[in-house]
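In this supplementary section we document a worked example of the pipeline. Step one takes a protein sequence of length 451 as its only input; no multiple sequence alignment statistics are reported here. Step two produces a three-dimensional model, which step three serialises into C-alpha cells for compact storage. The input and output of this example are shown verbatim.
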Amino acid sequence: MRFSFLTPSARSDAAYFFKAALVGILVGGLATAFHTGLDTLFAQYASLRSALGNGLLSYAVSMAISASCVVGAYLLVRRVAPEAAGSGIQEIEGAMEDKRPLHWPGVLVAKFFGGLLALGSGLVLGREGPTIHMGAMTAEALSRSQNLSPNDHKGLLAAGAAAGLAAAFNAPLAAILFIVEETRRQFPFGYRTYMAVIIASLLSAAITEQLTNIGPVLLVEVSYIPVWSFVLLAVLGVFLGALGVFFNRALITMMDFFLKIPDGLRWLPALAVGAGTGVLLNAFPAATGGGEDLIHHLIANKLGLLALVLLTLLRFGGVLFSYASGVPGGIFAPMLSIATCAGLAFGVATADFLPVEDDFRAACAVAAMGGFFAASVRAPLVGVVLVMELTGAYALIMPVLVTCTTASLTAHHLGGRPIYEELLERTLRLAGQKTDSEADKTPVQLGTRES
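The serialised model returned by step three reads:
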C-alpha cells in the first residue's frame, strides 16, 4: 500500500523496516521450533535413560545414541554446509566483510537438524549459536529477492543475527548491544540499519515469549550487596579475565589439534566425544548439556568448593571437545554455566575467610557470568545487559559492571583477543585468505614514477 503523503525516503525506510520486521517474526518462529524440538529430544532421551536404570545397559545405550547423533551431525554439516560448524557468528562477521560465502539453504538445513542432533545428544554446547546463524541466513534468504544496497544487505544480516540471539535468551536489548559491540568493525551504522536491528530483535523476542510463555531464562533472586564487597568482585573479575584468555587459546588449540587428524578420519573425534558424553549423561549429568537448567540448581543448592571446582573443569573441557568436534552449537550458554561454577566457588572460598552474607555467593555467580563473557568475547556492556535480562537480578547491575570491567581490562592486558575475531581469522587462514592482522604486517610496496 502506498501512502502519498510520505516522501520517497520515508517510503523506502518503511519498506526496509517491514523487511526487518518480517525477519524478526520468521526468526522468532524458527527459533521457537528449534527450542521446542530440543526440549522434546531432551525429555525423550532422559525418559529412556531413566527407564533403563543406571546399569551397564544404560551406559551402552547412551554411548551408542550420543555417538550416533554427534557423528550424524558432523557428517550432515560436512556434506551440506561446512560453514555451519560451530556457532556461526564468525561466519556472519566474515560475510559482512565480504570474505565468506552465504549459502543460506544449506546452512539452514545443517544448522537446524545438525543442531538438534548435536545438542540433543548432550554435548556441552548452547542453542544460541544455531539460532544466531539461522537468523542471519533467514535475513539472507529475504535479501536475495530484494534489490538492496550493500549497506542495507549487511544491516539486514545483522538484524537477523540479533533476532536469533534475542530469541535464544529472550534478551532483545543484549542482542542489540551485541551488534554494536561485537560487529563494530563490520556493521554499517546508520539510522536504517540500526533501527532494523532493534525492530527484528524486539519482534523475535516477543514471538518467542508469546509462544513459549517464558520470562527471564535464568531467574535469580538476590538482594543488594554492600559496596565494600565490590572490591572482592573486582578480584573475581581479574581471575575471570585470565580464565577467559585461557579459554580462547584452549579452544583454538583444540580445534587445531583435531584438524591434524587425516581428513577421512575426522569423524572419529565426533564419535569419541559423543560416546564420552553418553557416559557422562549417566555418571555425572551436570557435566553435560548447555547448562541453562544447571545454573538454577547450582545457585539454589549449596555445593562444596571441591564439587564446584570439579564441575568447572569438566564443563570447561566439555565445551572445548564439543565445539572442536565440528558440529553446530554455541559457546554462550556453556560459558555462563562455567562462570556460574567458578563464581560460586569463589563465593564459597571467600565465605570461609570473610564475614559475607549469603547473598554474596549468588552475587558472585551472577557477576561471574558477565565477567567470563566479557573476558572471552570482549563485549563488557553485552555481558552486563545479557546477565541482567537472563537473571532479572537488576539489583546487581553495579557489581556485575565492576566484574565485567575488571575482567575485560585483565584480558586486554594479558594479550587476549576477542574469541570471534580469532575464530574468523582462523577460518580465513584455512580458506587461504589473508586476514586483517596479516595484511597489517605486509610491507607497503612503493611504486616508481616516471619523470
